[in-house]
Design a protein that fits this description.
By secondary structure, the protein is α+β, with helices and mostly antiparallel strands. Helix content is 52%, strand content 6%. The protein is built from 13 helices and 4 strands. The chain is globular.
Length: 406
Amino acid sequence: MAAVSCAVFDDACKGRGHSKSSKFARPDLEELLHPLEEAIARDFLPALIGREVTDEVRELLALPARLGGLDISIPTRKSSNEYDASTTVTQPLVAAIINKELNYDARVEDEQKEAKSKVKQQRKAHREQEVADVRVKIPQEMKRNVDMAQEKGASAWLTAIPRADYDFALHKGDFRDALCIRYQWTPPRLPSQCACGQGFSVSHAMDCPRGGFPSKRHNFIRDITANLMTEVCEGVAIEPPLQPLSGERFSYASAIIEDNARSDICAQGFWGNDSQRAFFDVRICNPTAQSYRNSSLEAVYRSQERGKRRQYEERIREVEMSSFTPLVFSIFGGMSKSTAVAYKHLADLISAKRGESYGQVISWIRIKINFALLKSSINAIRGYRSRQGRPVRFDSFTLANNDCRS
């Protein structure tokens, strides 16, 4: 049977005008797939995101989600690379078939492994070049948003299965608003003025206290974290009171010294010592705020962590004889280093208890947090900042003339 197959392959090579040792000529794949790319760029993407797509945006959306895109590849570009990768990986097998080798020895397997490693390196280099090319072309104000979208876990909502029972689903309006937040596009039909009296914008909506949206966003993350901790810790409490002070003094002027002070969460034995409580306090920052525009994301996280530690850490360490960890997030789903360490440890504890893989658990936690932050951000844009007992009349809003397709 193998001899017949080799003979047929040999005849096919001769019929096409190729020698046994030559490669097949690569077909003109770009030309064949050009109509498909036109349909994607002209029809599919505008219908999906609700706005026209420029060449620069098309290249950005072709990047993987974790690199800031939507992973909607450009087939006219990708096809040739994938064809070359396929021929490289299968070349050892093709050579063995042409040479009518009935048994493939370890040499063929080693050559394939080497070819796969080569293809992997080429893909990585190609991807890095694509990212660099896109960064040169996109507007300067969008680059920071792309950086935030590239943070670990910040794009989890795009790759998650949209299960409504887990609250991992968005309707079309929310999906388009989420993309506007992600890429700093102006969402359609925004009011020109906020209920607080200031001009309305996405960045302003993230921080405006009217309507309590920043507090709700904070409470979502606090409650999700506390509920996760109850699976693996005892004595979990939300907003536990700290002991009143009796003359203690602290190093920083910003330290919390009120007798009714509270932390967001405490959990018994979180860090492994069953007799010690661990305290946590949540802070969610907006890196697109004007005050952070000239700071790197790492600097923003360090500043927020430092502020929380100066407020709570010394008091909790000296008075409560407990540990303190600030949980600092961006509105896009990124985490500070200390926060990432805490959630990795939490995922490790949960995975051991459930008997599930660590990768599955940490991915699920990141998706859950990402959706909570995303939906609270959308709510901050679209929610009505009414006062108690005084509903907002929608027809009294003056909408900005900013149709997102223009």
